[in-house]
Design goal:
The complex is a heterodimer of chains A (95) and B (474). Chain A is mainly alpha-helical. Chain A is built from 3 helices and 3 strands, in the order ααβαββ. Chain A has a domain of 38 residues: Orthogonal Bundle (Histone, subunit A). Chain A is 39% helix and 9% strand. In chain A, helix 1 crosses helix 2. The radius of gyration of chain A is 22 Å and the shape is flat. In chain A, 6% of the residues are buried. The model of chain A has no long low-confidence stretch (mean pLDDT 90). In chain B, helix 13 packs antiparallel against helix 14. In chain B, the strands form 4 sheets. Chain B has a 9-stranded mixed beta sheet with strand order 3-7-8-11-1-12-13-14-15. A 3-stranded antiparallel beta sheet of chain B has the order 6-5-16, with no helix packed on it. With 474 residues, chain B is an alpha+beta fold. The radius of gyration of chain B is 30 Å and the shape is elongated. The chains are: A mainly alpha (95), B alpha+beta (474). At the A-B interface, helix 1, strand 1, helix 3 and strand 3 of A face strand 2, helix 1, strand 10 and strand 17 of B. Bound molecules: zinc ion (ZN). The site of zinc ion (ZN) has 8 residues of chain B, from loops.
Chain lengths: 95, 474
């Protein structure tokens, strides 16, 4: 797979970040290296291999439906850049 | 040309578990903003979600009640998107292996019943609530709802009208309430539907281009939206234009849908298997045990109620509400008279609910009270007029019927000696009327009956009073 400027622009959009032109060039070559490495893997025949979604053999890890105390609100809001009336406050998402 | 409307519904149901799907925060509705949140549901780095066992149990129960196959091996997938209603920037959902698939719900009367197929049911987490209009510059976020367990129940495009869609969702709602997995309060957002709709010429088997309307939260809005959207699509096709595949926002107050700002490219959720939740394996034993514990569902109830002597119509109304059905069954158990129980519920109770603008779910009284009142009438302890008043008090204040009758002296006077003595006094005190009666003025008798009933607080059988009075006068 070939990484080009369009791929980087698309990823910027999805990640909601804006790169400088310099960073774009750097990002393009970094990503190309990563993807090329993956291309080596895809040379393997995985026809009969089950896709792996977990690296542990654990299964059925569940908890009982019992309420435990939540955080107190001041603690919950502590990392928020902006707070108003007990709410997290973020840039407006609709016009 | 004649067109056919093709509707499929994706229904999101908030489960009635005590805690959220991946953390132990309470799911209670209506808490102060951001007081039911923790490190996990706020998506803080370094936290790990742990699946709530009850969510899996509820999902299996729902699947079985909706005639689905249950997948023995379950995995979760990560749906990535960047929007402040999900602080992790992804939603843990199920894409590749939904917990249940290939079920159906039957709608319509038994003779003309129609199967609406259910494609799949998957487990996922709800998002937080965004408030856009409280602040001029910013959007405010409350994460109390974030992480509340949801089932998404996806139908096949089997509905052909607004009426069928509403019938499907009503039936789904009542089944979910009977099996106790959700309270399905639409006004609290615990049941919401996305409508997928297309139209095609009658007789065509190909599906038209569909649009989607999200987050509908009332039956009326769903019906109106389907009617309006199908008319819009038909008008486009008639003009030779094309329907564009898009998500539209339904404005119920204006009765119109609007195209949401079309996105440059399709949503790219970059789904991948969720690494934080190990697979969930459901055994056949668990499925069998859950199936055995599923309570009687509405169709079976209607059948049983008609066998108890109710008309189809009455049985359908009562079985159509989990709360009315519960009251009916409890009343029948106490008084043993199914028809009387149904009568009281369909006439007196529905009127009380209507007059107080309440829903059956708002009923807040001991459910054995109605049966006790019916028994008191049957045993001649109170008359029906008094019974109505007592039931009103039960409905409003949850009083104890027997105590209330006793304390307020509302019981029927059944003791003949007491009635005799009372009527005798009335005759003595009303010499003038007695003489009028004896001289042939028959209306004087009515007056004397009235006076006697008054003295007996209206709580004696009028027939007995009349008979005693005639005896004394002649
Ligand atoms: Zn939490």
């Amino acid at each position: 797979m070939k990484i080009n400027n369009e791929t980087v622009a698309y990823l910027e959009k999805l990640a909601r970040i804006e790169l400088t032109d310099e960073e774009r060039v750097e990002c393009c070559s970094d990503l190309q290296d990563i993807v090329s490495h993956m291309d080596i893997l895809s040379e393997l025949d995985t026809q009969d291999a089950e896709p792996l979604s977990q690296s542990f053999s654990a299964k059925n890890v569940m908890r009982e439906d019992e309420v435990k105390p939540s955080l107190d609100r001041d603690t919950a809001l502590k990392n928020a850049p902006r707070v108003k009336d007990g709410f997290f406050s973020v840039p407006k998402t609709v016009e | 040309m004649n067109y056919e409307v093709v509707v499929g519904l994706e229904v999101h149901v908030e489960l009635a578990t005590k805690t959220k799907i991946f953390c132990s925060c309470t799911t209670e509705f209506g808490g102060e903003p951001n007081t039911q949140v923790c490190e996990v549901c706020l998506g803080m780095p370094g936290t790990l979600p742990v699946l709530n066992r009850a969510v899996v149990d509820f999902a299996v129960r729902t699947g079985l009640a909706l005639n689905c196959e249950v997948a023995c091996c379950n995995k979760f997938d990560r749906k990535n998107y960047f929007y402040p209603d999900l602080p992790k920037a992804y939603q843990i959902s199920q894409l590749y292996l939904p917990i249940c698939h290939d079920g159906f719900i039957e709608i319509g009367k038994s003779e003309t019943c129609k199967k609406i197929r259910i494609k799949e049911i998957h487990m996922e987490e709800d998002a937080g609530k965004l408030i856009h209009d409280a602040d001029e510059i910013n959007t405010l976020v409350d994460y109390n709802r974030c992480g509340v367990p949801l089932l998404e129940i996806v139908s096949q495009p089997d509905m052909r009208s607004a009426e069928e869609a509403v019938e499907y969702i009503e039936k789904l709602r009542v089944i979910l309430q009977y099996i106790g997995v959700s309270d399905c309060k639409m006004q609290e957002g615990s049941l919401r539907a996305d409508i997928n709709l297309s139209v095609r010429p009658v007789g065509s088997f190909e599906l038209g281009v569909r649009t989607e309307m999200k987050n509908m939260n009332s039956f009326k809005a769903i019906a109106r939206a389907i009617k309006a959207e199908s008319e819009r699509q038909i008008a486009l096709l008639e003009k030779g234009e094309k329907v564009i595949q898009e998500t539209r926002r339904w404005d119920d107050s204006e009765g119109q849908s609007y195209a949401m700002r079309s996105k440059e490219e399709a949503q790219d959720y970059k789904y991948f298997p969720e690494p934080d939740i190990p697979p969930v394996v459901i055994s056949q034993e668990q499925i069998d045990a859950t199936r055995a514990a599923i309570p009687e569902l509405p169709d079976k109830k209607i059948e049983r109620y008609t066998q108890l002597g109710l008309t189809d119509h009455d049985a359908e109304i009562i079985a159509g509400s989990v709360y009315l059905a519960k009251l009916f069954e409890c009343t029948y158990e106490v008084c043993g008279n199914a028809k009387e129980a149904a009568n009281w519920i369909l006439v007196d109770l529905l009127k009380l609910l209507h007059d107080s603008a309440k829903q059956p779910e708002d009923m807040d009284f001991n459910f054995d009270s109605l049966g006790k009142i019916i028994l008191m009438v049957e045993k001649g302890k109170i008359n029906r007029g008094t019974a109505k008043k007592v039931f009103e008090k039960v409905f409003e204040e949850n009083i104890n019927p027997a105590e209330y009758v006793e304390d307020n002296n509302l019981g029927l006077v059944t003791d003949t000696d007491t009635i005799y003595a009372t009527v005798e006094t009335v005759v003595k005190d009303n010499e003038k009327s007695v003489n009028e009666y004896k001289s042939g003025k028959t209306q004087a008798l009515q007056y004397l009956i009235g006076q006697s009933m008054k003295a007996l607080r209206g709580q004696a059988p009028a027939q007995t009073v009349t008979e005693i009075l005639k005896d004394l006068l002649n």
